[in-house]
Design a protein that fits this description.
Blueprint: E1 4-8, E2 11-17, E3 27-28, E4 37-40, H1 48-63, H2 69-85
Parallel strand pairs: 2-4
Antiparallel strand pairs: 1-2, 3-4
Helix pairs in contact: 1-2
């Protein structure tokens, strides 16, 4: 599958389905890195709510690298729960 290019906070990232590192469910490169990538494991495609939560998690890192992991986790979970409650789902 071909990677997508996305823009977050004016910075371009390549989005890839692939390995994220042992025990990780996603990865976002720092905004200062050349050739920045956001990656999620293909296995998440089977779990739409987990996929949404982890995608939001990595996008929040991309949007504001200064936020700590606890804030990113809680905010991603809140956003995913709210979007799901409003009927947003993966087709």
């Amino acid at each position: 599958m071909e990677p997508h290019t996305i823009t977050v906070d004016g910075k371009r990232y390549r989005f890839l389905w692939g390995k994220c590192g042992r025990g990780h469910m996603g990865h976002c490169d720092p905004p200062t890195k050349r050739g920045k990538e956001i990656r999620l494991p293909v296995s998440l495609k089977r779990y739409p709510h987990v996929l949404l939560t982890n995608l939001l998690h990595e996008l929040l890192h991309a949007a504001d690298w200064t936020k700590d992991e606890e804030w990113v986790e809680l905010t991603a979970a809140d956003l995913a729960r709210t979007l799901t409650a409003f009927g947003f789902k993966r087709e």
